[in-house]
Amino acid sequence: MKTDVILLRFGEIMLKGRNRARFENQMIQQIKRVLRPLPRAELLKESHGRMYVQLNGEDYEEAAVALGKVFGLSSFSPTVKAASELSALQNAVLQEMERQPAKPGTFKVSVRRVNKEFPYDTYEMHRLLGGHVLEHYPEIRVDVHDPEVELFVEIRNHESFVYSQKRPGPGGFPLGSNGKAMLMLSGGIDSPVAGWYAMKRGLRIEAVHFHSYPYTSERAKQKVVDLTRALADYAGSIHLHLVPFTEIQTRLKESCRDNLIITLMRRAMFRITEQIAHKRDALAIVTGESLGQVASQTLANMNVIGRAATLPVLRPLVMMDKQEIIPVAEQINTFNLSILPYEDCCTLFVPDSPSTNPSLKVVERQEQWMDWLPEAIREAVEKTELVLIKPDDKTDEDRLF
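^ thats the sequence. predicted structure below, dont judge the formating
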């Protein structure tokens, strides 16, 4: 579609009262970031708060794909911008009709009159604009109940907007508006989706991945880097913490009951993630856990494992099943990466019959016997590698030490 103006609509940030200006500023930063590859595009703000993008010749579809990755944006529309005058609005509704991919049989006009000083009321504008369309398209008719095309007209102080399409955005809150959290990122389907939902609710995330070299390969680590890169497409960049976990896993295998290995391993992971969170000023831990999906995700296990952390543990997918999670993974381009057949440290050393109903007292007593565990956790945190992942950046230039 050929257009030069995209009208933007925000969702829940409009309800934020005194914090609205802060949320809007964060939205503006994110929109400018995603539009950076389109240097001629400008983000503009109308006097009563409506924002729009002036493309100035940039491609609409490319801009639309970019805007579809801005959290807090509920929808947007390719729009005809016109002066707030009757003749200009009549010309604008004709332009919008001409942009339809197929000639409609029915239409309606829906007017929103924000400028109350406009000389015609809403009822008159329906008649004046609808009649103007019928003069130029006598073969079509008005259908106010189920039209093939609905022409939306927003009449504002100096500029008005006419559009007929609404393209959904991701919604939610602007990225970072609700703080920072650590995402426990495995190589599976669920945790990247959990990270996407966390970002949608306004959290800036840093990812924590546990690897067990040589039991897990460099390809498995690269898979997680690529998953982080897919999420970074929505955030601009994401820090990835790569935690060496081999020693802890092997010593757990040697020193504890087989049926408790998964529970104890996950508790160690939570403690490591929490220590990294304190260093990075994060206030929560995000996981991809889904209730009852595997042995470690029974309610009893989630209770015992979650008590290892003092920070809030956020589980966006806890009430979702795989049939609900997979379409989101496909939408955010992580599914094909997640199903690559590379090992994950969470699948190593899995006993034949892991406990699904562990006792917190028994688990804590087992940990007390493992006097080596606190030092092993401290060393794992110290040896964690930090990498800054950016979208479409295949280099290691941003590796930090």
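The chain has two domains: 5-168, 180-400.
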